[in-house]
Amino acid sequence: MFFALSWLIPIFQLKSSLPAHPRKSSSSVIMASVSEVPQTVEWQGKQVPVWSMRTIDYGLVLSQDPDEVEKVTKACLEDGYFQLDLNGIDGRGMLEDRQEVLKLMHRFFEAPLEAKNEYGLIDSHLGYEPVGNRTGAFGAGTKDGYEMLKVSRDEIQQGSPRVPSPIKNSGDLHILERAIGSCNTVTKVILSALSTGMGLAGAERFEKSHRNDRPSTTTLSMMHYLPAEVTGQSKIGHQKHTDISSLTLLFSDQWGLQIRPPGECGAREMGFVEPKPGCAFVHVGDSLRFASGMKFQSCIHRVVPFDPAEHRYSIAYFLRAEDDTMFMDSEGRYVTAKEWHDQKFKAFTDPPVWQAMAPKSMILGGMKEDGADDREPVAPFVPEVSKETAVQA
Ligand SMILES: [Fe+2]
């Protein structure tokens, strides 16, 4: 039986007004090697790492350049993430589509709640989610600080998307169709390169379980993080997790995304991803890790308020495997891509008590985070964040 990958979490992160770049430590050191000694940035009164990472040239991957194929494969094997440079002629269309989606997001999220919530959350990969539907960045007792609209790739392809009325005009639907098409192409190109890099052939190739004409929960997710000054201390960011998906394509012009790189004894400390102009942050999700026989790393990440006063916009394309794709998870269970999606989505939205009872392999996809280089427990952040973001809701 073929073990498939199922999902990725692509995210395009955009912003309405560029935030001031954080201050980097004067003692920061940029290392030539990947993920060795990071730069640091001041956040919450501490110096926090800004993790270095490989940069992959999209044009070279599109050409199946052998060196670039090896490089992107190594990035997924060793890190679980990389920056994808889209500045060349082959990627600029994607960047332009992203900008149009950002404008659309502003139009949508500024609409009244009743209009945005016209259909509610139709399915876990489709519809509108208001602020506070999931667990927040700082653990049990906190809720997320973002609202989100998810548009199904399947529905766009079928020409009958259930999209709320504020962006249901033909112009907006065209923007969504273009963006989803671009995202799909980019992620499929990466997937194909990874199949080649892993020496897979025929039905074993990853893209064979991501066919366009087969049902999947692949979705374009548009997220608006409200200022912590507005949501209050109990609704902040997005909890630490790995993505359900196979690959996540994320555009981020604003600070706030943090990752824990894999380490020799467990995950390394939480640090920021620096937004790079013209680049997308791409990371491996649980399903591709499972499909690779646990060889690929799934990226542990969360979203925190870097600037509690700013609105933060992000776009993620989650490339997911066909619903009936079968794979073995980190617990040794055989599950389909759809089952893994539904189970993990439930865990994301469960109350803290239930979530605490779930195996750690559900939220973190079986990735280990304890170890000798685990120098930064999350708990001490809570009182500091609470203090710095406490405002009237
Ligand atoms: Fe995520």
TrEMBL record:
Pfam families, sorted: 2OG-FeII_Oxy, DIOX_N
SUPFAM superfamilies in the record: Clavaminate synthase-like (SSF51197)
Keyword Metal-binding attributed: yes
PROSITE patterns: FE2OG_OXY
One Gene Ontology term from the biological process aspect of the record: small molecule biosynthetic process
Domain Fe2OG dioxygenase: 215-321
Keywords per UniProt: Iron, Metal-binding, Oxidoreductase, Signal
PANTHER family for the chain: 2-OXOGLUTARATE (2OG) AND FE(II)-DEPENDENT OXYGENASE SUPERFAMILY PROTEIN-RELATED
Family the entry assigns: Belongs to the iron/ascorbate-dependent oxidoreductase family.
Protein name: Clavaminate synthase-like protein
Species this protein is from: Parathielavia appendiculata
